[in-house]
């Protein structure tokens, strides 16, 4: 039995995915989370084979979750299921060690089959998406990305500094660098550009 932990912030989508996967004879969703932080807590309590995660979630993105899973339980396979086929997302997911990258509009049999292949040690990534990712270059550093994401959420410099344990001056520098790299007019514009590219 393939034991799955599902992280998806939209309750309706989460419920549908759980129902579809539990209909398979060899797959069981043993835990479900509404965000990445919740998923980490559940991962400590439930032994699973696969973490199936969305990307855009509050508190902790799916990509940050994948990085944490790799550190906490490296033997657990990670799979992304998302609405967004953004090259930046795919590239970062591959770098983080994701085993599968699927779109939410794929048929349920395809998802179930992908999980079976991943358990056997294979990678399942749409070839078109993989090619797209190779052509994409993300200019942001990790700290610039985190600062920009929080700025895009409307947080002020002091709030970003407190959340990232940095000085306000350092945060201002990261945001200025990100704005310059993306040829943006301000931090909100830079966050919008980076989000469209899948770099946040």
UniProtKB/TrEMBL annotation:
GO: which molecular function terms?
Answer: DNA binding
Specify one Pfam family: GerE
SUPFAM superfamilies to which the protein is assigned, alphabetical: C-terminal effector domain of the bipartite response regulators, CheY-like
Q: Name one GO biological process term.
A: phosphorelay signal transduction system
Q: What sequence ranges are listed for the domain HTH luxR-type? A: 133-198
Keywords for the protein's UniProt record, in alphabetical order: DNA-binding, Phosphoprotein
Taxonomic superkingdom: Bacteria
Q: What is this protein called?
A: Two component LuxR family transcriptional regulator
Which source organism?
Catenovulum agarivorans DS-2
Provide the taxonomic classification. Answer: Bacteria, Pseudomonadati, Pseudomonadota, Gammaproteobacteria, Alteromonadales
